[in-house]
Amino acid sequence: MTRDPLVRLPEVTSFDVQATDVTPDQTFKPVHYSGKMGVEGGKDQSPALAFDNVPSGTRSFVVQVYDPDAPTLGGYWHWTMINIPGDLGGIEADAGNEEGDRVPKGALNMPNDAGFKGYVGAAPPAGETHRYFMVVSALNTEKLEVGEDTTPNVVNFEMNAHVIGRAVTVVEGSSP
């Protein structure tokens, strides 16, 4: 059974997102894998994302990377960044680093399922290929009023009433 993490979400306007520094066939490069989780050559570098055709009224974005194929009951949250200014056309590579030195002004990296704030790279079990849903949500508010340690699922709950658009791209990652 393949999990579709978007199936129960309300329909909203769609717009475009592109992971600009993955391979042409939409797979992660070695830097996008997790050195923290023991993947050789992994750098836990979040991919660069470009947004286009965003809905009118967008005041901020939330970016999330989610692996529904992880061997857990609830998948695995690799990254959540909130309060990205609505006038930006994307975010640069490695914006999810733990130092936070590439986070757009006003935005926040939130905790991931590895327990730190920022992006944790792909690390599928040996012999498996996983899908990594990169979801950009356009919101009608400048700021989500959540604490800095808010989990991805609570961020999802809090932003539901504000989502006016959604862009999705899926990138694959396989164990080396």
TrEMBL record:
SUPFAM superfamilies in UniProt: PEBP-like (SSF49777)
Pfam families: PBP
Source superkingdom: Bacteria
Annotated CDD domains: PEBP_bact_arch
InterPro entries found in the cross-reference section: PEBP (IPR008914), PEBP-like_sf (IPR036610), YbhB_YbcL/LppC-like (IPR005247)
NCBIfam families recorded: YbhB/YbcL family Raf kinase inhibitor-like protein
PANTHER family: PEBP (PHOSPHATIDYLETHANOLAMINE-BINDING PROTEIN) FAMILY PROTEIN, UNCHARACTERIZED PROTEIN YBCL-RELATED
UniProt-recorded name of the protein: YbhB/YbcL family Raf kinase inhibitor-like protein
Organism: Alkalibacterium iburiense
Organism classification: Bacteria, Bacillati, Bacillota, Bacilli, Lactobacillales
